[in-house]
Amino acid sequence: MAIEVNAVPFSYVAHVLAIAGAVMVLVWCIHFRGGLAWESSNKSLIFNMHPVLMLIGLIIIGGEAIMSYKSLPLKKEVKKLIHLVLHAIALILGIIGVYAAFKYHNESSIANLYSLHSWLGIGIISLYGIQWIYGFIVFFYPGGTDAIRRESVPWHALFGLFVYVLAVGNAALGFLEKLTFLENSGVAKYGSEAFVVNFSAVITILFGAFVMLTVLSRAPPEDDYSYSTI
């Protein structure tokens, strides 16, 4: 299914939302939560790495990777490489972000994997990794036959969008979970920090929506193997 509208304008809106989302999560974690650290006596600074890496990595860079196939006026092979590399960066940052949450929990003597957000997170990062490996093997190296690639394109695209939608939803769930903990610890429900967190979640959802609109819109003429096959 494809919308008979140019994908590029939707992608421009997504880029703006991506910048806004990245700025807001950094403002939250650095200004309101005290900063970022991999090693610190203040374990909360370790946790702060988690939302930054997950949003900027898995959600924003992952979304840009998806849109690259439908919005860049480049040849198919170039777009395929950009798509692959951006997804690899998103996956690596996502894995580090998940590890940061485990590191924070372990060093703070907090149980792991007790929430729906954490259960979904492990599943999503695993599916993301499987999707990337499959795409690398079939579409990049060593590469499948033409028949396998033709058959794989719509399923690869559909599965990728499914995983990405799950990731966006789980990110919003993560913002909600963390803000609930903070409010129970004394953060004002109508204070500046609460608004920053809630708006970060809203922007994350809007970014995901415009990624989807970009994907479902008309691609540039050079686009041969694209999401328009869905």
TrEMBL record:
InterPro entries: CYB561/CYBRD1-like, Cyt_b561/ferric_Rdtase_TM. SMART domains: B561. It catalyses: Fe(3+)(out) + L-ascorbate(in) = monodehydro-L-ascorbate radical(in) + Fe(2+)(out) + H(+). It is a multi-pass membrane protein. Keywords: Electron transport, Heme, Iron, Membrane, Metal-binding, Transmembrane, Transmembrane helix, Transport. GO terms for molecular function: metal ion binding; transmembrane ascorbate ferrireductase activity. The chain crosses the membrane at residues 12-33, 45-69, 81-102, 122-141, 153-175, 195-216. Signal peptide: none annotated. It comes from the Eukaryota. Its EC number is 7.2.1.3. It is an enzyme of class 7 (translocase). This is ascorbate ferrireductase (transmembrane). It comes from Camellia sinensis var. sinensis.
